[in-house]
Amino acid sequence: MTKQFIISAPNSNAGKTTITLGLLRLIKRKNIEIQPFKVGPDYIDPKFHELACGKVGVNLDLFMMSQQDINNNLSHYGKKADINCIEGVMGLFDGAKKDSGSTAELAKKLKTPVILVVDAKAVAYSVAPLIQGFINFDTDVKIIGVIFNRVGSERHYRMLKEACDDINVNCFGYLANLKNIEIPSRHLGLNIQQIEKFDVIIDEIATELEKTLDWNAILEISKKVEPILTSTHKTVASKNITFAIAKDEAFNFIYPHNINAMKQLGEVIFFSPIHDSEIPKCDFIFLPGGYPESYLKELSSNTSMLKSIKTFAENNGQVYAECGGMMYLGKAVISEENKSFKMVNYFDFESTIANKKLHLGYRTTITNNHIFKGHEFHYSSLQNDNETTINATVLNARDSKTDTKIHKKNKVIGSYIHHYFGTPEILLQLINQLNNDI
User: Fold this and answer.
1) What is the mean pLDDT of the segment spanning 397-419?
2) Which residues in 134-171 are b (16+ Cβ under 10 Å) and which e?
3) Which residues of 405-431 are buried (b: 16+ CB within 10 A; e: fewer)?
């Protein structure tokens, strides 16, 4: 039976990703099959997970996914694993609205124990009331112990462990406060090549943790997780659709669930808007988000690819584009230096990353026929926007209307929202929306 545990923290930037990556690498070294998961909609941490243990981190998101979806994904991706390691999001109880969608809520629904990562850089015995407060705040959330991050010395650790002993909390160990080994804050400008540079750092973290962390105790106590009962979606007949997904340095924000849904409806092939000269033969193009702003010159100079995509779209081809993919379909992208780079020139707008402004949050898109869940995270904005839109209401996590638009022309849809369509049923709804009139 697969075991699992959740790694969380009292707050963001406490070091839960650093500890998670080191632990993933350490357990992999022991030839134990470990499958990473990530709470929330983030695309970056799952890429680090894959770097650490060779398996992509799979998102588990209570806002975008049903409980059945989450259980099915745990079963599907964790079926060959000995351990499921679930990295939390933000602080343990931080959700879209109070603790709704938080790591704590997921822990309760999955009946999975939580390990709390505590930043100990500027604290000693005072960790006792902090930890005890988290344990007592919601007793349905089972916190089984702590790992301390940024510990100054063995003496410092003894003081921290004494605090844990006095409140009867397991202390699994610590990571020393070593320079140049922590994983930096992630952001949209961090590309794949930069991520790969952290491989040696993850190795160093794992080596340090092997000295100071009782990882065997973590695996032992994780045995107490109750098994998750999964149910399967109703079978959807294959539609024999050929899906072409843009995937390269510029476009790589892709939920594995979405790819899996496509595979259940047909064939999935990948292509590169940077390196390939034209799109492959297909029925449906998916242009995901990523880092187009980091490759504007390369994308703009590949004129044969630009023409290929535009011709496909103009000839009633089905295209779904989100965030960076939508920007790529516009007339041009304006760089931070205010330089314009021509793009596909299908949608009647430009996008700019000059004068950055953060747009962030969960989104619910309500159309006449369907409801789609997703997440918006970008610094760019549209300008000279004369494109047609779908008659849709887009709400945030607190059910307030947003000004996010869903653009549609012919059978092409584009928006800033990264939508979840991780089941064949939801994907068929998206395809139906593409084929419907505005």
Assistant:
1) 96
2) bbeebeebbbbbbbbbbbbeeebbebbbebbeeeebbb
3) bbbbbbbbbbbbbbbbbbbbebbbbbb
pLDDT over 50 (residue 188): no
**Rounded Cα gap, residues 31 and 204, in angstroms:** 18
Query: How many residues comprise the chain?
Result: 438
Sheet holding 318-322, edge to edge: 266-271, 241-246, 284-287, 318-322, 412-415, 406-409
Fold of the domain built from segment(s) 3-224: Rossmann fold (3.40.50)
Nearest alpha-carbon partner for 202 in 12, 3, 29: 29
Amino acid at 416: Y
pLDDT classification of 79: cutoffs 50, 70, 90: confident
Given the candidates 3.30.160.20, 3.40.50.880, 3.40.30.120, 3.40.50.170, the CATH classification of the domain at 241-435 is 3.40.50.880
Neighbours of 182 (CB within 10 A): 17
Q: In this predicted structure, which of 226-240, 327-341, 354-368, 369-383 has the lowest mean pLDDT?
A: 226-240
Whether the pLDDT of residue 200 is over 60: the answer is yes
Catalytic residue annotation: 323
Q: pLDDT band at residue 186, thresholds of 50, 70 and 90?
A: low
* Residues whose CB falls within 8 Å of the CB of residue 156, separated by 6 or more in sequence, listed in order: 120, 124
The whole-angstrom separation of Cα 27 and Cα 105 is 26
Are β-strands 58-60 and 34-39 bridged in parallel, bridged antiparallel, or unpaired?
parallel
- Say if residues 278 and 302 touch (Cβ distance below 8 Å): no
Question: Structural domain boundaries of the chain?
Answer: 3-224, 241-435
What would the pLDDT profile of 89-114 be if each residue is shown by its tens digit? Answer: 999 999 988 999 999 999 999 999 99
User: If we measure between CA atoms, which residue out of 212, 280, 207, 265 comes closest to residue 235?
Assistant: 265
